Structure formats: structure tokens, C-alpha cells
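User: Fold this; C-alpha cells only.

Assistant: Input:
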Amino acid sequence: MTAQPAPGSYAAGIFVPDTKLAAEATELVRDTTDELIYHHSRRVYWFGSLRGRAQGLAFDPELLYVGAMFHDLGLGERFHSSGRRFEVDGADEARDFLRGHGVPEDAVRRVWTAIALHTTPGIPEFMEPEVALVTAGVEYDVLGIGYDGVSAGDRAEITALHPRPDFKRRILRAFTDGIAPKPKTTFGNVKADVLEHFVPGFTRGDFVRVIQDSPWEE
């Protein structure tokens, strides 16, 4: 008899890795985030995998899965006082998780980089496949970049498993809640746009002013 995939582990021709590492990553994210972030993170894995398959990239599904599942972990309340970018907080959590499972350092580095750079467009696409595809999955699910590159049928299968009701409003709320306590971490990155829209009185950092106001004498 052909083995059947576990419920919720297969859609659009893509499996979630059937490994202890992947199962524990799933459990950790389910226990420490809400359903919005959980469903979004799972969709990022599927959409990133589909983009990788379409591009003929050879990637490690287990590493891509961990990167996708941990990529927004740093938005959580326990990181609000870290003073660091939420991407780095999530990347560090993934690094500790992987090291705790004896994963080789090169693989740990790839996952760390994938998470740390997932909101830095124009760079991940030129790096290792796992790095590129976490960002590709995020850009697909949040921004709709390359939307027609995934068939309507595949989208339907994935969103049936992991729905996205009122997702645009809710993910923007999650971004705002996660980064408003540390607004300086938005300097030079796209999350400044979020606070500019949703936090009254927020003033984004100005790179030109930083140069002009530096202590160097002219």
C-alpha cells in the first residue's frame, strides 16, 4: 500500500518534510505565535517551494521549512524590548533551534540569513536557494509578487489548508504591533512604511540627515 501523507502536509504537489525537526518546528511556532502567523508561515513554505520548483532550484525542503516557519517569530511580544530588528530576533531563534538539533553550521547559516534578509529586497534572490526562496514565499504571500506564476488551482489547495481571511489588514496590524515598540529598527528598511502609515507622530530615519549631522567636520 502506498503511504499517505499526514493530514495537512501535502498541497499543490509539495510535501512538508516528514522529519522530527520539521515537526518540532511546527509545534514551536504553533505554541508561540497566533494563527495568523502560523498560517502565513506555512503558506510561505508552499509558495517558496513552488517558486523554487518553477525555477529548477535544488533546495533543502527541511531548511526552507524552518526558515519559513521562523521568519516572523521575532514579531512576538517577548521580543518587543530587544532593540533589534525583528528579522534578527527570529533568525537567532531559528539558529538556536537548529543548533539544539545538531544541524551543521553551514545549514544554520543559510537559515539565519534567509530569515534576517527576508525584508531586504534585491539581495536574497542572488544567494543560496533556501535564502532566495524564503523571501520569494514572503513576497508572494504578502505582496503578491509573481502572483500569476502559481496556478489558481495550486493557490486554492494551499489556502484551503491555510486560509487568509482579512489577511492584508491583519498582517499590517501584526507588523505594526511587532515593530512599533522599537521604531529605530526600521531605519533603512521597508518596515518604516508600516509605522509611517499606522503610528501617529512616527518620523522615519533620514539617511541624508544622518550624513549631514554626523560629527565629522567639513
